[in-house]
Amino acid sequence: MRNKPRSIVAGLVVIGALAAGGAAFTAANVIPDTVMGFGTSTITGATATSLTYTRSADGSTITAATLVFTGDISTKTVQAGFNTNALENCAAGTYASPSTTVVCTFGTAQPTASASTFNVAVS
After folding, report:
1. Same domain, yes or no, for 56 and 115?
2. d(Cα 3, Cα 11) in Å, to the nearest integer?
3. What does the pLDDT look like over 68-115, one tens digit per residue?
4. Are residues 52 and 100 in the same domain?
5. What's the structural domain count of the chain?
6. What would you measure as the largest C-alpha separation in the chain, in angstroms?
7. Of the candidates 14, 52, 76, 120, which lies 20 to 30 Å from 83 by C-alpha distance?
8. Residues linked to residue 97 through DSSP beta bridges, in sequence order
9. Cα–Cα distance measured from residue 45 to residue 73, given in angstroms and rounded to the nearest whole number
């Protein structure tokens, strides 16, 4: 019975050391704040299956968006833009069955922090 209290204390010391070490490790992982999950994305005229963004080297602006649409929309016009900005024309889509990939490179890069909505029109 005498060894039981010592083993409990030793176990608590080990748990405490692990907790302290884990806290120190997570504090070293510093990631800057960014806004990339928009509150609203509106896509009309087609069904998008994925959307990825290209950011500037420092991550402060969004310079392009790549969209993948279901089916062949390579002959259609795709336009995209952020917030209430006018939509800009995207490059012609590339169809590779069963989907079309479209890249939208923005004439004026969108500041990442203020990009709250992303709008796409396909016609």
Report:
1. yes
2. 12
3. 999 999 999 999 999 888 999 999 999 999 999 999 999 989 998 888
4. yes
5. 2
6. 82
7. 76
8. none
9. 10
